[in-house]
Amino acid sequence: MIISIQRWDWQTIKARWAPAVLITAAVAAAALMAPSYAAAADKEAVLTETGEVKAQPQIKTTDVFSSRRILYDRVSALTQIPWYRLAAIDQYERTLTSVHPKDRKHPERLTGIFVQPAVWSGPLNPNLEDTHPSSISLFNGMGQDGDGDGIADPNNDMDLLYSISSKLKPHGHSMDDFAIGLWAYYQNGRSVQRIMQYSKLYEKFGKLDLFKHSFPLPIGNNYSYRSTFGMGRNWGGYRIHEGTDLFAGYGVPVRSTCYGIIELKGWNKYGGWRIGIRDLNNYYHYYAHLQGFDKNIKAGDIVVPGQSIGWVGSSGYGKPGTQGKFPPHLHYGIYRDTGLTEWSFDPYPLLKHWENQERQSLRKSKKARP
Ligand SMILES: [Zn+2]
Question: For the segment 104-128, what is each residue's pLDDT rounded down to a tens digit?
């Protein structure tokens, strides 16, 4: 915790809080403060700016997830906001930090929530580092004390989650109320959509550990692909190629690479039958030129890694149903949401990584069989 207050302030605060409260707060804080959390700990693999795949750090992700869950449950008990909605906000904020690391610089902590100093302390507050709940409230800042230590610390997990919850709670408890509250806070439709999607995922699976990935085709020798990102397209004009083409025969199953929500399903003149899936890293996974879709899935549905969503085909470049203008293949692209725009990055390194991972676990499970 960063405590930027004068000594006499601290004495006043200590005097005001009964010792019992201080002890409770200290115990709670100790329970929540686990060793050290790398920001990337909840991803099994991330892409660096140079496009390399960075394996996850040597931190047990399960520890981070269980510490976070304790945090959400505690704030949920205080605010009556279900843990999965708090988890969804927190995860969304974490994705914002990963695309805007400079504007959202903060020490390592459990929650990814970030509040700009002027918003935390109040727009007209002359002290941007104000941590006094009373003066912050006087200047209409959003900073509040969530863990009962008398300080509204913009880097304290409880204080952050409690403060954001206080913004949402007055709007009510239904799903619609929650969406309205999110809109009032973020003023951005994308933010509302993401957080609602994430909340649905966490509620459905009842856990935070939803970062496993699969290769988009069944592992084997019946496909080929290479890095073609940014090259001219072989078909369809002069736009650069935003993805990787995986060549395989008609009818080979196409699988979701992640836990996510179907955001789009249908025909596009260029992409043919295509599907878009949003994941918890705010990546949009785009699958194009399908022969058809699994009939059980529709927009808004939840998918898991490895789940069949359709079949390899050669649809596209014409009116609905057009196919056969090029060899059958899966076009797979990943787009990253920055909060306002989306840009594509080369999925090739991640594809290689997922393929290797799956090959290894297949080998292991074969060995394990008697
Ligand atoms: Zn392609």
Answer: 999 999 999 999 999 999 999 999 9
pTM of the shown model: 0.82
CA 195/CA 188 separation, integer angstroms: 11
How far apart are the CA of 309 and the centre of ligand 1, in A? 18
At 149-174, the pLDDT tens digits run: 999 999 999 999 999 999 999 999 99
As a whole number of angstroms, the distance between CA 189 and CA 179 comes to 10
Residue 236 alpha carbon to ligand 1 centre in Å: 10
- CA of 281 relative to ligand 1 center, distance in Å: 23
Distance of CA 265 to the CA centre of its chain: 21
223-368: what fold? Glucose Permease (Domain IIA) (2.70.70)
Distance of CA 369 to the CA centre of its chain: 36
Break the chain into its structural domains and give their ranges: 7-205, 223-368
